[in-house]
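#onboarding

Welcome to the new folks! Below is a worked example of what a typical request in this channel looks like: someone posts a single protein sequence, and someone else replies with the predicted structure as tokens. Don't worry about understanding the tokens yet, we'll cover that in week two.

Example request:
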Amino acid sequence: MTTVSRERETLPLNGASGAPELEASAGERGGKVLLWGLITVAATVIGALIPLIRTPRFYFYDDTQAGAYGIWIEIGQSLRRGDWWLFNDEAWAAGNYAAEGQWGLWNPMVMLIGLLATVVADGVVFATLLKISLMVLLALGTFLLARSYGAAAPWAAVAGTAVPLTGFTTYFDGSSWVTGLMVFALLPWAWWGLRRIVVRRGNPAPALIASYLLITVGYVHGTIMLVVVFLALLIELLVRRQAERIIPLCLTGVVLGLVALTVYLPGVLTAEVTARASEIGNSGFLGTDLTGLASSSVASALPQVSGWWGAYSPVPVLYIAWFLPLIGLVSLDRMRGKWQQLAGLIVFGAISLMLTLAPSDLGPLRFPIRLVPYFSLALLVLFAVLVSRARVRELTRGRVAAVAVLYGAGMYLAWSQNPTIDRIHFVLGGVAAAGLIAVLVVLYAPHKLVKTWGVRAAAAGMIAVSLVTAVGQKHYFPATPLPDFHYPESPEEFQEPLAEAEGMAFIVGQPDRLGPDIWNETLASNAWYLNDTPTHNLYSPIMFRAYSEDLCMSSHGWTCQNAADSLFTPDEETGELLVDLLSIDTVQILRDPEDTDGTQLAARMVPDGWSEVERTDDAVTWVRDEPLESNGEASWSSPGTSVTTISDSSQELVLRVDQVPADGGEVVLSRLAWPGYEVEGGNLADPLRGYLLTVDVPADSEGQEIHVTFEPPAWPVLVTLIYTAIGLGVLWSLAHLVARLRKPAKKTTRRSAHAESGEL
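Example response:
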């Protein structure tokens, strides 16, 4: 290798020839950027299709099956009926959609997804198309963000292609946690839009739209990271001594803060009755450490990330990109005096890393590994910028050694964490080594073609190797370690279970442990939204604590076997069976997985007043002889008190008092006592059993009406706030557009080029 002086090594460089690409004509620059943007899209689509080779249902696992798909269908059907899904008393613990926050009540993108879900007649196909679209959105946003910080188009394309291929995004957010993928896909666009406001004095509309969509998805981790973006940009402006540009950034923050209040405050004001955690602790569950992150350049690294699978992740969840050792080509001297231009990017990356390494439980926030994608985004964008602006012009032995050491250290850590898969390490590590050598040759070979095509050829080759690596990775690790419940693919198939049911149903048991054939007889979690039978057993990430504890119900809606005994046990205060207080007309009891021969299930005898309508080896179904069909209405009245239902809907119940004693009475409703209920013509009493809504009936109210209504806490104020935010955003964007149109045209080619490169 040729040894060069320190001074020569740090000459200005864009490409092997040192020609500054950003000084090309506007037309050529635009053409190149468009081409590399299209390459990013094409490569991302190919990369997203690779997992389907081995696992056709790759994008239809765990929460996508059990949670998101049912939500999309329910939203789509509600829109088609002309309804708004703010609250649903028939969904019980899962029906407080404003408190849950993740139902896209204010999000047009989620609404569109819901409508499309009701059109595509295959859940797997729809989830696959949606997630590939989100990954394309993520890749393009990353491409634009890298460009805004000064990355050349080829390197921005490398970063844009790599981000959707990272381990957590592929195996967790991509396969299962789709709301995480949604907000992650939107964050680079929001960040890019915010930089346009403070760097180029651009129209606020792109930032406001992307940020609004991100916040109203309701996935709090994305909103937290958007706040981190604001903080990072604030520090960037202070470091660059451009405090005057903080004003539009703060104005944007105020507008979006009003939106965030509307989305998240109902959950905060409802938290007292939910199962949300409030403690800070560290069980190590789904946490990360620096050793795992240090091997993130190895596609086969299985880090020490404990989860449902044990102590070590069975998939490369912390993988970022095979080409990270090329950071050894960056000259710090070349960046001397220019780090302040990257202050925001560095601050975001540092905070992301800190949050990734945080304790496993920070109050209601769990699983710090969820934030690994944001650290990956910052690292890959920083890589693209640094190799664009500070890569050494000529290769030295020291630089080769730096790349080799970084590669070797990653490989060693990957092997030491899991030495039993040395063959996989050898294959994927060999691909990475070949890719690194090829990049060095293409960038630094003493040939005239290198001066013209070196950077573009290297970038194209890196994208190709990334896709080859993805093929190998998905061959050895074909699916997420999260569960596949093997739900049916067609919505019509979800109609088959509980065909004999009447009224409100309750399912006792854990269907996920009985094998895929059980879905012919029952469903679980939000799959019930695709069935005509309303059930208690829907998915709720917040739950209603007292109710869930009383019926030993998990967030996924399945219960312990004791729930059946609880349902048919008299309540101590009222003397009524709990099944009557809950207005349940159908009870299905599933076989306990430990009851392998079905003896316990066979011993279940039908109660008086009920009939057995179906019995199989795995389930027995009972239906009330005279169905109540009175969910949400009065299920018990104190002696001498009687009421009649005048009208009943999820958010309003009107009762007529037919009889009440001289000292007043009490009525229990088959509704959960969520904060936000108000009573006109009566008073709220302490909830029965800690969760059933109870109303005190005044002594002199005979013949009068009692109105029971529900609105999320502070809802009128919050609705006013979000409409104010939308109005302010529209007015600001229009005012900016009008002001720009009134300005005389100026020659801004060079200024735009500098702004695009991050040089303010």
